[in-house]
Amino acid sequence: xxxxxxxxxxxxxxMLVSPRGARNLPYWMTETKHNSIPKEADxxxxxxxxTDLFSIYRTAFEKVTGQTLALIHPDIMSTPEExxxxxxxxxxxLMLDTKVCESRCTEHTLDLSKRIDQQAFTASCEANVTTTLxxxxxxxxxxxxxxxxxxxxxxxxxxxxFFLKISEAMPPHVSRDVIMLFDAARxxxxxxxxxxxxLLGAFALQLSDLANNLLIKPAxxxxxxxxxxxxxxxxxxxxxxxxxxxxxxAKVTNSYLCKxxxxxxxxxxxxxxxxxxxxxxKELLTSKNVRIIEIAYETGFQSLSQFNRSFHRYTGQSPTExxxxxxxxx
Length: 330
Known about the structure:
Blueprint: E1 3-7, E2 13-17, H1 41-49, H2 52-65, E3 68-72, H3 81-84, H4 90-97, H5 102-115, E4 121-124, E5 130-138, E6 141-151, H6 160-167, H7 172-184, H8 190-215, H9 222-235, H10 243-250, H11 254-265, H12 269-287, H13 292-298, H14 304-315, H15 319-329
Helix pairs in contact: 1-8, 4-7, 9-10, 9-11, 12-14
Protein name: HTH araC/xylS-type domain-containing protein
Domain HTH araC/xylS-type: 227-325
GO molecular function: DNA-binding transcription factor activity; sequence-specific DNA binding
């Protein structure tokens, strides 16, 4: 069975079973393109970062695990600032906000990328915070990295020498907050962390497949098919949309449309429609004082039960819970 190896923080290999079944991995997953950034990498990276597939997965992963998931450019220094600084760890966030660890964090990510030999790599920084970098491999080389972790994986206290070094650059009350936030941070067990890496490894394989599809020059008109279909969906989002309607509008068969749409977006047509309907519903739930059943039909769903199932799938909450949470935070 196909597999990839992730190196865990204790140096032991962690096997990842490929979800694509029992077959050999393609050559681009077995050959190392180390320290070589493909010329296509920048455009592929930007496309991956802006896909609904990445957005949906990131939202779900961060909500369930409490860990950060960022997509890092293969040229580490070219990563957008908001992506590079993305962090859900209060300790790390404070260190980044005070600029104490900004360069250290970048250097640590850069160091991890240099130590990657086609497989993922996990290591701890000076602050005893564990981070993992997983490459998105394609037939031309690495086009992105998934960065996750930024968590504690052992009970060790913050290194006194490191704390002394950073405390010199911050006010006394801030240095006290640093210790407090570090001590309050959740400590993940090795099994917990490895399980989360397995999820990320499977997702990395999905992104690799999508990236390889993006590298393939589309057949004449296929790029247009995706754009035409997206436009039709957004125009008709609040109405009933059938696959027959979409295929007829794009002047192609149903099966060809489904194949090209999945190749171009990483999502099925139904997933894409429901995702955008839920985003519209979230806006309506927080801006309009109307019943949930009215919002369900107003956003194109054919029943309240279908709306509730889809809403929970994409947000992890029921519409009522989401509305209550939004009202409390406003």
